[in-house]
Amino acid sequence: MSERQRVKGEIFLADDDPALRDALSVTFMLEGFHARSFADGASFLAVARESIPDAILLDVKMPGPSGIDILHELHAHRVVRRACFLILNRYGMDCRGDGI
Amino acid sequence: MREMAPSVMEARLASVLDTESDGIIVIDEQAHILVFNKACERLFGFSAEEMIGRNMAMLFAGEEDVRTHNSRFGCAINADDRRINGVGREVKARHRDGTIIPVELAIGVALTLGGRQFIAVLRDLRPRKESEHRLSELQAELARISRISAIAEMGSAIAHELNQPLTALMLYLQSMKRPDDPSSKAKALTLHAMIEKAHTEAERACSIIRRIRKFVEKRGPEHKLVDLRPLIDDAIELAMAGHRHLTRLIRTDDPELPLMSVDPVQFQQVVVNLVRNALEAVSGSEDAKIHVSTRRDSELLELSVEDNGPGIPLEAIDDLFDAFSTFKGSGLGLGLAISRTIAQNHGGDLKFNPGSGGRGTNFMLTLPLQRKLAGEKSMQP
Ligand SMILES: Nc1ncnc2c1ncn2[C@@H]1O[C@H](COP(=O)(O)OP(=O)(O)O)[C@@H](O)[C@H]1O
Ligand SMILES: [Mg+2]
Description:
A: Rossmann fold, 3 helices, disordered C terminus, B: alpha+beta, 11 helices
């Protein structure tokens, strides 16, 4: 996937489960998005304050600031207006596989 | 009158012997049987007639028993031997039909004109063994019910835990089935890597289920000589469901941890209970930390679960180990009660340091180190 000609957009995702993070990145990548993943809320915020992606995917329950905390924080920074948000609930996505 | 006295005595004695529920055998110094009461007839299936004059050794099983009895009753009898002076010990008796019967044997010495005689009192231990066995079965069943209820309490956390690898698995599979650029080399590589990853996630889901199944499986009490470390790690894995990335778990082991004889699942149950309690105590605190450690000294092994929560509420301390004493909305209050029973059934104990005032709680499970008893066999899993 080195040729980046047709990147549809950039997605930031934060989830504390490494496998889920990886699986989500792979999926987005294959769908033509550029995905950047973060293991916790703090590292996510550090980057998201500076650069605004096209979409954000957050796990509600994570070490440090939760998905909700992050939402508030980014709202204050007016990031929300530009990015599309998606918050995963604590129980992950349901397993139908067409959830995203 | 003087002549009557012995026969009255004899009649009384005979009646006492016959009504006595314990077996009574009187033997001479050569272990020949002189008296064999009714209870003995019932216990061994031999009549007094058959047994009078024969050697008592035939009534006991196991070479060791026969030998000690022969030497003890036959020749050199050491009158100082505490066991001969009425202190009971457990031996194996043999019924006429070959059945081995555990009995408690107490021996007294009588000095008579005809030489020393020995009075053996035998108590059938089967009813006691039976009720002990029943008790331990009931306790095992209760422990299992409490394991099931612990899993039920963790239900939604476990569902989450299980959903994680399954979701990842779904995503990998979904990506694999994408139709685009089928011949690209990069795609083939990714495909292979994804199959590997999908496989890892399926395994992760399986191991969660395996762990739970082992935890709630129906089985009787058992003791095995095992390495406790993997048991502790596994129990922590189970207990951490839903708290994995919110609480820091520190784990240290004594470098010289010996194998221990425990009921593996019951031991894990104690660990799960203590870790769950600790997790609940620290939940919501800033720097939530739990330290699970093992330590041994010359006599015992100690497993300590220490948290940095608020400590045990003062009003909870007095009946902390009572069943149904809980200070949580959802708890059953069985965890500590059962954990302590399990500890005690292992010859150990469960103690605590209540903490509070900035210090967290510390629970300590102590287990006696394996004493190598003569002839004791180690049981391998
Ligand atoms: N690590 C701990 N820190 C503070 N309190 C504790 C701790 N462990 C146990 N307790 C107290 O002991 C009570 C009884 O615990 P337990 O027998 O495991 O039942 P349950 O967890 O179902 O309430 C708990 O409700 C709690 O108040
Ligand atoms: Mg509990």
